[in-house]
Amino acid sequence: MVTKEEVMKIAILSKLYIAEDEIDKLTEDMGEIISFADTINNAADEGGEFDNINNLSNVLREDEVVPSLDREKILRNAKDSDDGCFLVKNIMK
Amino acid sequence: MSESKIAKLHESLVKKEISCRELTEKYIEAIERDNGELNAYVTVTADKALETAEKVDQKIAGGEEIGLLEGIPMTLKDNISTDGIRTTCCSKILEDYTPIYDATVWDILKKQNAVLLGKTNMDEFAMGSSCETSYFGGAKNPHNTSHVAGGSSGGVASAVGGNIAVYGLGSDTGGSIRQPASFCGIVGLKPTYGAVSRFGLIAYASSLDQIGPITPNVEDTAIVYDAISRYDKMDSTSKGRLGDPVYNTLKNDIKGMKIGIAKEYLDGVREDVRKAVEDAAKVYESLGAEIVYFDLPSLKYALPVYYIIACAEASSNLGRYDGIRYGYKADNYKDVNDMIKKTRSTGFGEEVKRRILLGTYVLSSGYYDAYYKKAQNLRGTIISAFNKAFESCDLILAPTVPMTAFENGHAVSDPVETYLTDICTVPVNICGLPGVSVPCGYNDKGMPIGMQLIGNAFGEAKILNAAWQYENAANLFKSADFGVKL
């Protein structure tokens, strides 16, 4: 059972606004999907802990200094930039 | 006898029966004519395509040898990064995003002078089974445009099935290559996790995502797979293809091959699909393969496990869209937090937001153990069950989708019902295994039916060998009434 309050809380964690007229339908959909997901709680854990697929292991490399992407190119996709930096509103007064 | 379209076009280019420019122009004309109806492409790169074609023609004129994929017109799903060509994931939030680097798969093909015709439609951020969550509207099925092409790589499948591209690359997180290939009557391969680099693929669920080819037939799939399956230092989960090119063993005899069928895969599958798969098993028997039956009880947990893990990873991966560094940015905000929330709330579509919320829910304190951790444990259980199955068979035969392509608009109504269509495809992603969808018949309305061959990890050679033998014996391919006629 998913409640409206839970959906509102999750929305804050997800950095999403939910419109007043969307909340009931969304709570209903989420409830339906979560009760479907609940079927896994009928399963006995037979396989032990999850390891990793195909036994891939972490691949580490030496930390070497190499040329990176061009600053000017990176900033091309930003809506606001200034003096080679991303521009955002003040976060501290 | 089934034959490679890529090899045939390559031969025409080498023999100068057609120039690469003429070939490319034919495809561009076909896109201009048919894309209005199919909605397969969201960006067409005609000028760049013709530039590459010129280069290839000069090489041919100069007597230089050209590679098999050189000069062949193709497409990429719009979540594969292309330097200087917009890449939208078919989302409003990336509508005007232009990558500044190439995905490794495109880097490989570009260096071989593949002719990129454009970028193709998909469900927004690859979340969907009908292509209808696309910000640009869904791609249509070339066998009947009142039906969907499938998803999420619907645009690639529509373009290849409708012959407005020779082949394409899609991505498969829970069936997004195999399902649309099945719906559009063509071949789609989801390679083993790690076989093809994911560098430059815009992430949905990183432990499940995999890039793979969508082509008109099995031989073309083998050609494209061999080209893109390379180790890549830019992807820390990359391993590359283990062993020889799969093309070398494609046409081998399959006498004595053991093909497994799990009855759980056939439960709840529509009658016409079930019959087509059972008929395929008979074809295999006539080719000297042995059909073995086995149980796979943990299969019933695959779908909830998939949705929990995929949404959890998506909620984390999509955290990066904040309007600051790239993509859409909302106006009229009071502070940074408000800006991020407004950007995300108006930039993402409904299905994407739903999956972010679900993923955040299953990862939140209080629910983490009951959902996410439990799902990861069950993932281990399902992997063990598949490993055990491969002790008694060489590969597994199953339907690709429990039904044929649905009518436009059908998938949007009920989320859980739509999720159920992925039941046969998600286990392969959960286990990191390779799976290929091959056409195995048509229903009474002429809509294609697909079957799936699943192999053990890095077992692409085996499943493509079996797929080619079936395709060659059954000879079922029907071209749709669209695209280039040569």
How would you characterize the overall build of this protein?
The complex is a heterodimer of chains A (93) and B (486). By secondary structure, chain A is mainly alpha-helical. Chain A has a domain at 4-41. Chain A is built from three helices and two strands; from the N terminus they run H-H-H-E-E. The longest helix of chain A is centred in the first third of the chain and has 15 residues, at 23-37. The two termini of chain A are 42 Å apart. The longest helix of chain B has 25 residues, at 368-392. Chain B starts with a helix and ends in a 12-residue tail after the last helix. The mean pLDDT of chain B is 96. The relative contact order of chain B is 0.15. Chain B has an eleven-stranded mixed sheet, sandwiched between helices. The chains are: A mainly alpha (93), B alpha/beta (486). Chains A and B meet through helix 1 and helix 2 of A and helix 10, helix 11, helix 12, helix 13 and helix 14 of B.
Brief digest:
The complex is a heterodimer of chains A (93) and B (486). Chain A has 93 residues and is mainly alpha-helical.
Detail the topology: elements first, then pairings.
The complex is a heterodimer of chains A (93) and B (486).
Chain A: H1 4-13, H2 23-37, H3 71-75, E1 81-82, E2 85-86
Antiparallel strand pairs in A: 1-2
Chain B: H1 5-14, H2 20-38, E1 41-44, H3 46-61, E2 73-77, H4 104-111, E3 115-120, H5 154-161, E4 167-171, H6 178-183, E5 187-190, E6 211-215, H7 218-228, E7 258-262, H8 263-266, H9 271-286, E8 290-294, H10 302-317, H11 336-347, H12 350-363, H13 368-392, E9 395-399, H14 415-420, H15 426-431, E10 435-442, E11 448-454, H16 460-474
Parallel strand pairs in B: 2-3, 2-4, 7-8, 7-9
Antiparallel strand pairs in B: 1-3, 4-6, 5-6, 5-10, 9-11, 10-11
